[in-house]
Amino acid sequence: MRDVQTVAAWIAGANKVTVLTGAGISTDSGIPDFRGPNGLWTRNPGSQRLFTLRDYLDDPDIRREAWRIRREHAAWTARPNAAHYALVELENAGKLRAIITQNIDGLHQLAGNSEDIVIEVHGSLYEVECLSCHARTAMSDTLERVAAGEEDPACLRCGGILKAGTISFGQPLVPAVFDAARRAAAECDVFLAVGTSLSVQPVAGLVDVASRRGAKIVIVNAERTPYDGRADARIDGPIGDVLPRLVGEVTTDEPPAASAG
Questions:
Q1: SS3 102
Q2: 44: closest CA among 30, 54, 59, 34?
Q3: DSSP 3-state assignment of 92?
Q4: Across the chain, which distance is largest between two alpha carbons, in Å?
Q5: Do 146 and 86 form a contact (C-beta atoms < 8 A)?
Q6: Which of 11, 59, 119, 167 is least surrounded by CB atoms within 10 angstroms?
Q7: Four-point Cα dihedral 165, 171, 175, 177, nearest 10
């Protein structure tokens, strides 16, 4: 398919670029993906139960294991990588309509993207939600309780089951959040899907939303996706190398004109 230079020219000529990011953009930051060759679910398919709402509700052992994994999550020490910073440059250039992210690691905001431009469709690891009264608290506070010996901490307000403020399998997306993502997909000239398998609906369907509105569809991913045949371009290279190159033509300044006299 078309090369990096062609896609870079599309981005440079666009008024609005919407980017959908998945786990692949954060692997260079030390956060493993799920479905890749070394992904969490590839290596241990049974671990998907930790991310399934019904199993989480029904099995205290699953909840205890989930809390142990949350304490050890790589996001707490991860830093943004070159791909994250490239999207900051795209925002600074005035081209970025939105980042729709399936990630829960907060690295886009840590890199410097504006809070109001990042749409976290799968929620955030930095929050905890009670599944009974829906109170939200800081993850750091609950992890302190886990560290102090509460293996399956309950809501301090109502005694309900606590879970990370993220979307599990079997749990609906927040309608207002997904509506914002849909608008961002419909209001762009280029829709760039980066590091996502495009296998989870309804988020993967945002490709269709953008395509129907005439946007160029670009997929940057190491593995094949169900949407490759609909893409205007597909790039297989390392995301940390490819994304800065795609944004480079946008952020390269013209040399200043010489002053008279």
A1: coil
A2: 34
A3: helix
A4: 79
A5: no
A6: 59
A7: 40
- In this prediction, residue 256 carries a pLDDT of 37
Architecture of domain 1-31+79-122+172-251: 3-Layer(aba) Sandwich (3.40)
In whole angstroms, what is the distance from residue 250 CA to residue 253 CA? 8
Q: Which of 127, 124, 95 is nearest to 109 (CA)?
A: 124
Q: What's the rounded Cα separation, in Å, for the pair 134 and 250?
A: 43
Q: 57 is written with which tokens?
A: 């509700």
- Token digits of residue 242: 């490819």
Give the pLDDT score at 35.
56
Whether the pTM exceeds 0.85: the reply is yes
- For residues 128 and 10, give the distance between their C-alpha atoms in angstroms, rounded to a whole number: 40
Task: Specify the pairing of strand 17-21 against strand 136-138.
Answer: unpaired
CA angle 49, 53, 59 (to 5 degrees): 65
- CATH topology for 37-77+123-166 is SIR2/SIRT2 'Small Domain' (3.30.1600)
**CATH 3.30.1600.10 residue window(s) in the chain:** 37-77+123-166
pLDDT at 94 over 60: yes
From the list 63, 109, 64, the residue with the least C-alpha distance to 87 is 109
Which residues are marked as active site?
122
DSSP assignment letter at 200: S
b or e along 72-100 (b: 16 or more beta carbons within 10 Å of the residue's beta carbon)? ebebeebebbbbbbbbbbbbebebbbbbb
